[in-house]
Amino acid sequence: MAPANRKQPARAASSDSLYSLMEFLREFPDDDACLVYLWRTRYSPDGEHAECPRCTAVRPFKRYATAQQRQSWTCTGCGHHIQPTAGTIFAKSSTSLHLWFYAMYLMTSTRCGISAKQLERELGVTYKTAWRIMKQIRSVLGDDSRGPLSGEVEMDETYFAPSKRVHDVRDRKRRTHMERVVWGAVERQGRIVVRHVKAADSLALMHEAQTHILPESTVFTDEHLAYKQLGRRGYVHHRIKHSAKVYVEGEVHTQTIEGFWSLLKRGLGGVYHAVGAKYLQSYLDEYAWRYNHREDGRAMFLTLIERAAFAA
What we know:
Layout: H1 21-27, H2 31-42, E1 49-52, E2 57-62, E3 73-75, E4 81-82, H3 97-108, H4 116-123, H5 127-138, E5 152-160, H6 172-178, E6 180-187, E7 192-197, H7 202-212, E8 218-221, E9 236-239, E10 248-249, E11 252-253, H8 255-272, H9 280-292, H10 300-310
Parallel strand pairs: 5-8, 8-9
Antiparallel strand pairs: 1-2, 2-3, 3-4, 5-6, 6-7, 10-11
């Protein structure tokens, strides 16, 4: 075996990674490289010509150095400025684009996520800046326009206890009421949808099912009474009897969604420790997005920066 080139490290063929740190650093070595990526992706595939909204025609654009370090390209015909970051999560941020891109790389290179405190240490920014970066990145992960689920779908709900700060609550009924309900549905060998809902009753859960699952799909659930209406709502419904300690009966089971709950709870508990109800859905979107892109055959980081470039 030939010795490795230490000056040009390459990702090993046996690696599960689709995009290593060295590839990231080669493609995005500095802030300018990140800005040029946005310019080419959003406006100018060749890096020089773009549609000028003032001229209403394709014109050459040039980037001029300014004392203000302006992130813009200028139309050589009318002087109109186009800023590649305008309308994106990077707009009006004084933080380097290189740090934004590296934060997205870190968020997509782990299964269980990364905390804002760890991101603060990695980027060398303040905690407030790290938290805002993560909040903005999560904001582009929630809208999945690939349509409702279909085929064989497993559906279930789970519960997240309140923050540890309320451990002094003695009233058991009040504590149960404070639990946060999360509903999820997953296609076998396919996508998942996860939503923070107000309650685990039939009204809330049937609304989510009809919103996110196509009629005539085959739906597998446990014995929760709220799911009894699925058959009357146009679904082929099968139930597994967990109360009888039966977890798999032929094709009838909810093991796929249970596996996702395990990953989600271990991640939220181990990385973030506690998540407030106000931001719970954004964390659910992050975990669901990583799950849905796990087998794309393309690096999640590349998918994410492309999505961020067009997200308003």
